[in-house]
Specification:
This protein is mostly helical. It contains five helices and no strands. The chain has one domain (3-148). The protein has helices at residues 3-16, 19-43, 49-84, 91-100, 113-148. Helix 1 (3-16) packs antiparallel against helix 3, helix 2 (19-43) packs antiparallel against helix 3 (49-84) and helix 3 runs antiparallel to helix 5.
Length: 149
Amino acid sequence: MSEPTRELLLCAAALLDQGRKVDRLSRPLTAAALIAILIYPAITKQPPWILIGSAMLVTLAGLAETYFAIRVGFDAALVRQLAGVSDAPDLAGIDVALARLGLLRATQLDRPAGARVDGAKRLLRFQALALVTQMLCVEAGACIAWMWR
C-alpha cells in the first residue's frame, strides 16, 4: 500500500471516530424523548398530541442516528485495520465479506480506497443529519409548548 493511501485511511479513521461524539449528543435526546412519550400522557388529562408527535420524531431520528453510529464505528475500525496492514490489503476479499454481511451492494465491489472513504464520510454525514433533525424537532416541540402555555 502506498504511503498516501495509508495516510488517507488513517485520517479517515480519525474523522470517523468523531461519530462517537455525535452519538453521545444524540443518546440523551433520544432517552428524554422516550421518557416524554411514556410519562407525559400519564401525568396530564389531555396531552397535546403535537408534543407527543414531536417526541416521536426525536425518537425516530435518534434510532436512525444510532444505526448510523453503529455503521460509522464499524467503518472506523475497518479503515483503521486497513491502514495498519504493512502490505497491500485484500480489498476484494473484504468486499466479498461486506457483501455477504449485507453492508455492501454488488455494484460497489472493487472500489479504490478513496471511494471507500467517501462512502464512510457519507454515513458520518447522515449520522450528523439525524442529530440535527433531533435538535430541530426538540426546538419545534419547545416552541409549540411555549405557544400553548
